């Protein structure tokens, strides 16, 4: 076969080589469950969790670690600066049953960077080495690391960082090929994924701007990466993993009937209700709807009406209207996968 059918993290085979990328405020358990149900996922990564919160007994941070067995294999992502707290948090993640612990070295949000964590670690390599050494020593499950290209375009150092990660016992490195300063502007530089792949022998995954199965296949072809992470593309279309996997295997990609998508949205609502108070459910339903209810021509008024709703019950007739229109007109994949600035604005949820 032309494309890899799996990748391995310390001898553990994961298939397909498609990963749900960590997204703060998005890849919580309710979302992960529906994404997993749509199929095609080899690995899921949680939203990032603060080691400060975890090690200071913050209930919400601990709740963020909870997952259902069907979400496995799952990596719990942590962020922070202090190596002792990082180690302690990694131990907590292992005890919570994570298959992998993922270290965040990419978040560009000011609040995170000012605390020394996220992409700040790309310009503090002695501290990064300390963290990785401590975490590796403390856990028996594999440690993976997600990075950006560098701090800014004058200090692109992801190849050096990837080598450091390998040297410290990291089991996989994922590159989102933008710099911290770049934020979400422009495009991710996938040439750097290829360069990292040439320079380390641990698995390498790439992240950034995969919105269609063809995007993913092109990245496998161009870089020889072991896996790809998909983030924003999975919000508008959680079936993207299954569709990519099928396209990679020369199979016509599954197009879910609107009725099934409607049920999925309601299942998401039910998952949310198990997980959080109704106020939170309304917010999360609005956020997903703004992305998920795309692809029906002239569907903008429905999204606007959903965003103005005060309760989930008020939204439900809009969902009916949207999916009834989808039955008639179909869902336009190009409209559905168009990048959305709102998701970019919500980066790291802070
Ligand atoms: C709303 C949002 C939240 C994110 N949160 C995280 C996070 O918690 N940890 C992380 O490593 N990356 C985070 N990212 C970055 C994504 O995982 C991914 O690397 C990036 O969005 C590029 O991939 P994409 O174009 O497929 O979305 C976030 C991105 C978005 C849009």
Taking the alpha carbons of the first and last residues, their distance comes to 42 Å
**Assigned CATH class of the largest domain:** Alpha Beta
Uncertain segments are 341-350
Structural class: alpha/beta
The overall number of domains is: 2
Series of secondary-structure elements, N-terminal to C-terminal: EEEHEEHHEHEHHEHEHEHEHHHHHHHH
Globally, the shape reads globular
Q: Within the CATH hierarchy, at the fold level, what is the topology of the largest domain?
A: TIM Barrel
Q: Which hetero ligands occur in this complex?
A: flavin mononucleotide
In DSSP terms, counting alpha (H) and pi (I) runs of 4 or more, how many helices?
17
Describe the model.
This protein has 17 helices and eleven strands. The protein is of the alpha/beta class. It has two domains: about 240 residues, Aldolase class I (TIM Barrel); about 70 residues. It is globular and about 55 Å long. The termini are far apart. Flavin mononucleotide binds next to strand 11 and helix 10.
Task: Please outline what is shown here.
The protein is α/β, with parallel strands linked by helices and about 350 residues long.
What secondary-structure arrangement, pairings included, does this model have?
Blueprint (H helix, E strand, L loop, with lengths): L6 E3 L2 E3 L3 E3 L8 H10 L4 E3 L3 E2 H5 L3 H5 L10 E6 L3 H13 L4 E6 L4 H5 L10 H14 L4 E8 L7 H10 L4 E8 L11 H9 L4 E4 L5 H11 L3 E4 L1 H5 L3 H9 L9 H18 L2 H15 L7 H9 L3 H18 L3 H5 L3 H5 L5
Parallel strand pairs: 3-4, 3-11, 4-6, 5-6, 6-7, 7-8, 8-9, 9-10, 10-11
Antiparallel strand pairs: 1-2
Helix pairs in contact: 1-12, 4-6, 7-8, 9-11, 12-13, 12-15, 13-14, 14-15
The structure holds flavin mononucleotide.
């Amino acid at each position: 076969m032309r494309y890899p059918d799996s990748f391995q993290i310390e001898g553990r085979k994961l298939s397909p080589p498609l990963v749900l990328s960590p997204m703060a405020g998005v890849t919580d358990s309710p979302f992960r469950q529906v994404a997993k149900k749509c199929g095609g996922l080899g690995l899921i990564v949680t939203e990032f969790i603060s080691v400060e919160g975890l090690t200071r007994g913050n209930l919400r941070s601990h709740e963020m670690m909870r997952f259902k067995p069907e979400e496995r294999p799952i990596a719990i992502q942590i962020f922070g600066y202090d190596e002792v707290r990082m180690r302690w948090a990694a131990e907590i993640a292992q005890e919570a049953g994570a298959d992998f612990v993922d270290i965040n070295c990419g978040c560009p949000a000011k609040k995170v960077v000012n605390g020394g964590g996220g992409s700040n670690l790309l310009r503090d390599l002695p501290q990064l080495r300390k963290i990785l050494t401590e975490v590796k020593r403390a856990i028996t499950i594999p440690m993976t690391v997600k990075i950006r290209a560098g701090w800014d375009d004058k200090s692109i150092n992801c190849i050096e960082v990837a080598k450091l990660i390998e040297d410290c016992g990291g089991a996989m490195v994922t590159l989102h090929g933008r710099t911290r300063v770049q934020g979400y502007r422009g495009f991710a530089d996938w040439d750097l994924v290829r360069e990292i792949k040439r320079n380390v022998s641990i698995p390498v995954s790439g992240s950034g701007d995969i919105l269609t199965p063809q995007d993913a296949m092109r990245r496998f072809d161009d870089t020889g990466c072991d896996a790809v992470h998909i983030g924003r593309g999975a919000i508008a279309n959680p079936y993207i993993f299954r569709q990519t996997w099928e396209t990679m295997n020369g199979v016509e990609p599954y197009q879910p009937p609107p009725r099934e998508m409607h049920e999925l949205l309601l299942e998401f609502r039910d998952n949310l209700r198990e997980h959080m108070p109704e106020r939170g459910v309304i917010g999360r339903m609005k956020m997903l709807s703004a992305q998920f209810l795309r692809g029906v021509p002239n569907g903008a008024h429905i999204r606007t009406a959903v965003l103005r709703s005060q309760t989930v019950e008020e939204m439900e007739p809009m969902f009916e209207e949207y999916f009834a229109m989808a039955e008639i007109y179909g869902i336009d994949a190009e409209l559905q996968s168009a990048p959305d600035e709102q998701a970019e604005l919500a980066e790291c949820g802070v």
